[in-house]
Structure formats: structure tokens, C-alpha cells
Amino acid sequence: MNWDAYDAALFDLDGVVTPTAEVHMRAWASMFNEYLERRSASDGVDYPPYADQDYFDHVDGKPRYDGVRSFLLSRGIHLPEGLADDPTTAETVCGLGNRKNDYFGRVLNEQGVVPYPGSVALIEALHAGGTPMAVVSSSRNAPTVLAAAGLTDYFQLIVHGGVAAELGLPGKPAPDTFSHAAERLGATNKRSVVLEDAISGVAAGRAGDFGLVVGVDRGAGAKALADAGADIVVTDLAELLSGEPV
């Protein structure tokens, strides 16, 4: 791939640089299924349990509370929005989102995180070549995860969910967080590469008319990523170190 054709690389984190998407999936499953079990008992309704496909359909790549809201609506459940500082016991969208974050933190502390070797190889190569890089993640945990992976120093900028909220930027599938990162790195959308494993993130890259949108298939499916707007789909970022120019 001819990286000289681009001025910036914008990486999603979970599922692209680190395998923490799996940690998120387990945290979401634990939180939602615990909630649905209690809700079924109280409502007398047999709500279908949360499954892996729900992660890709409703949660992956979105800001945390958007993911909660989307999944609950898929089960016909409506909760009050609540506030970002709601306790984890609150039966609100924010309360459930905060509860999920507790699950995620516990798993991350217990298991740590090791980045994908192919992703590290690409990041090191781009760093050596002087390509500015940013992490653009819906997760407010992005700085912690990146530090745990030992990769913070490679990135000039981290645009995470907290930053987006402070700046009033809509989350993926809107392109605004990627566009903000490109601008901060001194690049245009047309001269920037988006690297994403989530359908919502790929859609954001396409909506922003970025120069190249790379779909990383970690389970969403190559066709789904291509249909969402990926120009190319890979299963490992090391594939972008060689081959014909894109």
C-alpha cells in the first residue's frame, strides 16, 4: 500500500489495535443478560437474551449510551435517559452504561491487554515513516487501554468518547470525530485513512468522504463492512504493509 498518498492514519482502537473488543463483548453480555433476566422476572415477559450478534448490530463502535439505547429498543424496552453520573444501580440508559463500564474495568484489570502483532507492525512502520496517527474511539476507556498496550507514544492524538462529549461531536456513524482528528493532525479528510472494524465506524468513514476506508474484519463480516462503505477489507493490518498500491 502506498502510504505516501495519505497524510494521516486514523485508527479505531478496540478490535483494530487491541483485542479489547472481546473484553467489551463479554462485559456487555454480562451486564445485559443480568438485566434482562431481572426484567423478564418483573415484567413477566420472556426477553430474548443478549447474543454476540447484538454486539455487532447495536453496540459496536457506538458511544456507550447509544449502544445501551439501541439494544434496549431491539427488545422493546424503553428506559429514562438518566445522567452520566448515575450510579450503576440506576435503571436508566446511563445507569446501565455505567454498569457495563464497571464490568469492562474489572476484566481489563484482571487480564490486561496485548495488542494485535500485525497492528503493532503497521503502527511502528507508519511512525518510522513520519505518518501522523490518531486513535478515534467511542470508548472513554481508550487512553487507559492504549497505555496498557504500551502504544500511547505512537499517537499524537486520542479522540475518545469523553472528548467527543466535551466538544459536542456526534459519535459514529457520524464522521465528526474522525474529521476532528484529521484536522488536528493537519490533514484533510481526503488525505486521511480510516481503519475500523465496526460497521458504524466504517459508515462514519464513508460519510466523511475520507481518502481510504479500511475495514478490519474481526467478526462483523467482510461483506457487511464492504456494504457499509469500506474500500478494502483485511483481516490483519499487517496486510497493509505490502501489496499493490491502494
From TrEMBL:
Q: Matching SUPFAM superfamilies, A to Z?
A: HAD-like (SSF56784)
Q: Which Gene3D superfamilies match?
A: HAD superfamily/HAD-like (3.40.50.1000), Putative phosphatase, domain 2 (1.10.150.240)
User: What Pfam families does the entry give?
Assistant: Hydrolase (PF00702)
InterPro entries from the UniProt entry: Beta-PGM-like (IPR051600), HAD-like_sf (IPR036412), HAD-SF_hydro_IA (IPR006439), HAD_sf (IPR023214), PGP-like_dom2 (IPR023198)
Q: Which cofactor does it need?
A: Mg(2+)
Assigned keywords, A-Z: Carbohydrate metabolism, Hydrolase, Magnesium, Metal-binding
Output the Gene Ontology terms for molecular function: hydrolase activity
Superkingdom, natural source: Bacteria
List where the protein spans the membrane: none
The signal peptide annotation in the UniProt record is none
Tagged with keyword Magnesium: yes
What family name appears in the similarity comment? Belongs to the HAD-like hydrolase superfamily. CbbY/CbbZ/Gph/YieH family.
Q: What is this protein called?
A: HAD family hydrolase
**UniProt source species:** Nocardioides vastitatis
